[in-house]
Amino acid sequence: MRTLKNSVLFLLVLFFAGTGLCQTEGTLSVEVNRLSDRVAVFKIEGGNANVVALNSQAGLVVIDTEIAPTFAALLRQKMAEVFGRKDFAYVINTHAHGDHTYGNQVFLDAVIIGQENVPEEMARSVERRKGMAASLKAGLGRLKGSLEKMEKGSDQAKAQARRVAYYEALLQGYENNFVMTYPSLTFSDGLTLHLGDIDLNLMFFGMSHSTSDILIHCPQEGLWMTGDLFPPGQDLYIDSERIPGLPRWAAHLEKMVQTEKDTKFIVPGHDALLTSEQLRKSLAYARAKEEEFAGKESAFFAFRNAFEKEGPEISLRVLKDLKAKPDKYYTLHPEIDQFAYRLMLQGKLDEALSIFLVLAELFPDSYLAFDSLGEAYLRKGDREKASQSFKKSLELNPKNQNAVQQLKSLEEKK
């Protein structure tokens, strides 16, 4: 999990930017990375979701099921082809998010396993999935419209046709008999599957990327599967709710590091395989943050409580006061930014703007503070202040693409 704003931006990129996800027009393909005789990583070509299959004496075991049943069906067919068998014994969801669980219904013949928080978290995503389907329809219309204007047979037109094919398949998966399929077997802290020739140890990592993240270890294969816990190049996401879990995170990471000499593969939920060095960095980060926050209270919790009981003006005075007491309180900017961003999406623009202004004052070196302030000014209709805020954000982080795009749009409107 990252901030709400980053989640919104991710969905926009997913739906409207697109990637070429097939070898030929209208045909989706599956890439296979064979790690050993018993283990392979499957992904829709051009995508970044890793779906792992293990060939055990007890049957095939699948880790995660992609973002739609249409994709899961393609993956299932390819798994059966690669391993020469069709008996699926287990499906394991590394956590509840839709890009790891929405294909579950394709594997109803298997026992579907997840941490005990998975069903509730999946249930909360029902309305969000409907919203995603509506966004897909709108995005597809624009993609098809731009495709019609392109030169037929050109590389640009072929790439666009592939995007259309992908999103049509995704929308089909969301609309044609989609069934939210929950785990049939859940566990709290841990579960071990004895599969004849291999074992799978499932461990609840603690609230992190989601409320239901697990690690999966197959010692016979020297294999760890980590879901979305350790995104490459990023630190673990920490907020006031997650800080109490830091000792648990560190304990699991230490366990992983201790198996380093026997570990061959660390497969995340997306992108390239992880390295042991990345895990050691995450462990060091968790330990450092555990020490940093020890004995301190959350300024955000106090701010939120004051906001709900006393309103924005008093809550912002509370926030400023607590920020000035770093020995007793820790103040995490991203979670306050997310709180204000949610208010803005709810139409409470003046309240959100007042918070963003204070955050820019308290965190003058945060590009996110000025990026959010710019968005609030845009919604307020103050283009000049919006432009100033985005320029400041870009000075602090030249790689902030949201600021780049917003400034470009503002210049075009001039």
How many domains is the backbone divided into? 2
CATH architect. name of the largest domain:
4-Layer Sandwich
CATH superfamily of the largest domain: Ribonuclease Z/Hydroxyacylglutathione hydrolase-like
Spatial separation of the terminal alpha carbons:
36 Å
In total, the number of strands is: 14
Overall 3D form: globular
Question: Percentage of helical residues?
Answer: 40-55%
Tally of helical runs: 15
**Any idea of the CATH topology of the largest domain?**
Metallo-beta-lactamase, Chain A
CATH classification class of the largest domain: Alpha Beta
What is the mean predicted local confidence, pLDDT?
91
The main pleated sheet reads as: 7 strands, mixed
Physical arrangement of strands within the biggest beta sheet: 1-2-3-4-5-6-7
Strand residue content = 15-25%
Uncertain segments are 1-26
Radius of gyration: 23 Å
Helix/strand structural class: alpha/beta
SSE arrangement, N to C: HEEEEHEHEHHHEEEEEHEHEHHEHHHHH
